[in-house]
Amino acid sequence: MVQAATRELTILGFIALLLFSAVRWGIVKAINDSLFGIDRIEATAVRELTSHHEPKELAITKMFELFESVHYFVFAVMVTFILMTTLLIILALRQTNVWHRYDKLTMADLSRRGVSSAAISYWGTKHRFHTNDNMFIAKPTQPCRFSFASYLSVSLLAFLTSLVEIPVMSWMVLLAVAVLAKPALSLGETDLAVFLSVCLAGLFLVSLTFCVHIGNKRSYVEPNVVSVSQEIHQGTPDRVHAAVEKDAVVIPSGQNAISRAINATFGLPSLVHRDEMAFAPPPERSDGVIELNGLPVACST
Fold it and tell me: Where are the transmembrane segments (predicted)?
């Protein structure tokens, strides 16, 4: 993940260097003179720079201001990118530590009062991973007695790396937005407030859609914490197993138009009830190794 962040910062630094070089080499001034010509104010600025033995390429022109704005914008993006990457790394380390702590819990630990619902949810998810013929995750390649927390940590690292590695096209779009935002920021107070409100509303809808999508995925993977917790404290192992495998992902009745549109766009992870999956425990070999999809994943205890 750090290497991916370094690559992205290298790209941003290269873009900033190109912008700086374009100003210093007079490319920006040449483009400005070709497109807009030289007005009286710019001609005065060129004479002032020449009289002070300064490069005339540094004269304040329309294109110079535009390139300077993009240059500052790229610098702000670099700082924000560094802060966000650092925050993601810190949160990922904290989460992996929590998973490794939960991974050591036993049924006796979970049956005690005061155990967090997150620990029970983790245990139920781990139970599904080990016992169910999972159709929604990649086949594990770790050997017998592999750590479920380590498996999640590797998956989290791969996901965060994909977030950090921003495609080149995204950077090009970001630069285009920076250029197009220059006229928008010069609007009047009322028009600017309307423009920013529309942008904020769009970001809110995108965030809401993403949260609903993640909620749908989690509802498929994670068991019902309340029912599992009750069976852990009161039931037998068979009833605990049944509680873990019981809940389903279904389309709620009375969905509004927004929810239906979101589900139609992203889709629910599954519309098949868990009880209809013809669940069967994975086979156990003579050496005590349990196989999942033909691969050894855990040892019987």
Answer: 9-27, 72-93, 156-180, 192-212
